[in-house]
Amino acid sequence: MERIPILKMGKFLIVSIQVDMHDELALALQEDLAEQIVKTRAKGVLIDISSLNLVDSFTARILGNMTAMARLLDAETLVVGMRPAVAMTLVELGVSLRGIRTAGNAEKGMALLEAIVAQQAKSNAPKST
Amino acid sequence: MERIPILKMGKFLIVSIQVDMHDELALALQEDLAEQIVKTRAKGVLIDISSLNLVDSFTARILGNMTAMARLLDAETLVVGMRPAVAMTLVELGVSLRGIRTAGNAEKGMALLEAIVAQQAKSNAPKST
Fold it and tell me: Which stretch is the leader sequence (chains A, B) (predicted)?
């Protein structure tokens, strides 16, 4: 597989990562995601990692980069579906997911994204005249 | 990867198939999907195949089986993101996707699923007393 698909759902984009990341795939995903955020004017990105048995420091960095990049393009990112074993390994390895929001599953994640985006829209809204 | 993840989004389930199907994986996916449809009472299933370069007769049969199974469990299935080359190959191979609904992308698919489910709810609604 040369590309990880990005699905558009309403205001949001959904990325389901099912294979271990390597350099080329990660780079392609970041490029595709940046392009899609701009093209679709998405306000949020949901990244599902429920298929991953292992999140190493490389993958953690990629997730962090995507989050930072999406934020620059005015979209919030949420990582969902982390397995308990993955969380334990991340802590043991001392890998931090600083700046990365997480939620238990896709549905909760979507609700949280909706709430965050609604909150931002409210605080960014121009004063009524 | 031993499992293809199934994401719940509102009334619907989303399955993103990113790897070529083999017997074991296909069987696991069918089991998981049936279980999730019942557990979540999902009314529709969206299957994204935009990552697939090839849909052979085996994969086509699996898609057909999943559609039929979901229908028995009272859920509609929609296949989205088929690549042009895949459609051409299916026709050349003489593989039919009978009974399988398709849509161009995930967003259109979701809208179509919403419409189908709303239509069904209407026609199934008990007469008002």
Answer: none
